[in-house]
Amino acid sequence: MLHLLNNAALSAEEGGHHVVNELPIPTEMFGVIAFMLFVLMLIATVSFSSRGKSPEVGEYEDPAELPAHERAMISDLNSPRQH
C-alpha cells in the first residue's frame, strides 16, 4: 500500500504544472537598490544629527543674542498652554 502512495506522489510531482515567475530586473539589482535606499536613509539621518545639540555654555548669555527662530521657540515654550 505504501508503494502505491509513493508512486502516486511521484507521478503527481512529475506531471504537475511548474510555474516560473520571471523577475523584472536581475536579482543583483535588488541588493543594489536596497543598499542605495539604506545609504539615502543614513544621509537623511546624519543631516539631522546636529539639530538636538544645545549651544555651548556661555555662547548666548543674553536671550536677545539668540537667533529669531530660537527666541520664538522660547517664547512659545514659556506661554501658557490652553487645552
How would you sum up this structure, described in words?
This is CcoQ/FixQ family Cbb3-type cytochrome c oxidase assembly chaperone. The chain crosses the membrane at residues 29-48. Residues 50-83 are annotated as: Disordered. Keywords: Membrane, Transmembrane, Transmembrane helix. The protein has 83 residues and is mainly alpha-helical. The protein is 55% helix and 0% strand. The protein contains three helices and no strands. The longest helix has 21 residues, at 27-47. The chain is elongated. The relative contact order is 0.05. The mean pLDDT is 77.
Short characterization:
Keywords: Membrane, Transmembrane, Transmembrane helix. This is CcoQ/FixQ family Cbb3-type cytochrome c oxidase assembly chaperone. By secondary structure, the chain is an all-alpha fold.
Secondary structure: elements and pairs:
Elements: H1 2-15, H2 27-47, H3 68-78
Provide keyphrases for this structure.
mainly alpha; 3 helices; 83 residues; transmembrane helix; 55% helix
Which blocks of ≥5 consecutive residues have pLDDT under 50?
none
Shape: elongated
* Continuous helix count: 3
Percentage of residues in strands: under 5%
Radius of gyration: 32 Å
Quaternary form: single chain
Q: How does the major sheet shape up?
A: none
Structural class: mainly alpha
**What is the share of helical residues?**
55-70%
SSE run: HHH
Amino- and carboxy-terminal Cα gap: 78 Å
Averaged pLDDT: 77
- Count of individual beta strands: 0
Protein name: CcoQ/FixQ family Cbb3-type cytochrome c oxidase assembly chaperone
Keywords: Membrane, Transmembrane, Transmembrane helix
Transmembrane segments: 29-48
Organism: Kocuria gwangalliensis
